[in-house]
Specification:
single chain; about 140 residues; mainly alpha; two-stranded antiparallel sheet; 5 helices; 2 strands; elongated
């Protein structure tokens, strides 16, 4: 998933090379930090049982809820059975962008399936604004 943050970038070709490298390093750090904020937003909201499109997650099916009861687990839909899927969420960044993704084929598959039924992997308008404000703070 990508979140676009619009900024007024400097024309880096007009500044000395050593200053340009320092600015690019600052951008990379800023993108990495906002990706981590994005991960925290997704994980916290999901743990509370909310999707990014607003509202609570729809309830688990009766069959799955019965399975959870048998396993002595909570039937509150928060997409956490073992915690492995959410723990596999990670990010990568460079001086142009950051990307949030799931490590491993198994956890990525779980996330894809869950996201179709209970959309959690994304940001609403307010969350995007929060991420953009953080990015602006980090590059100043």
């Amino acid at each position: 998933m990508q979140v676009n943050v619009t900024t007024n970038p400097r024309n880096l070709s007009s500044i000395p090379k050593n200053m340009r490298k320092a600015y690019e390093a600052k951008l990379k750090t800023a993108f990495f930090r906002v990706a981590q904020i994005g991960i925290n937003i997704i994980q916290d909201r999901t743990k509370e049982g909310y999707g990014y499109k607003g509202g609570r997650f729809k309830p688990y099916s009766e069959k799955y809820a019965a399975f959870l009861v048998k396993k002595n687990r909570d039937t509150f839909p928060n997409l956490t059975y073992s915690g492995n899927m959410m723990a596999a969420m990670t990010s990568t960044a460079n001086s142009k962008k950051a990307e949030i993704f799931f490590r491993g084929k198994t956890e990525s598959g779980k996330a894809s399936g869950n996201n179709k039924i209970r959309p959690f992997f994304g940001f609403d308008k307010e969350e995007k604004k929060r991420i953009a404000r953080a990015f602006e703070r980090f590059i100043q």
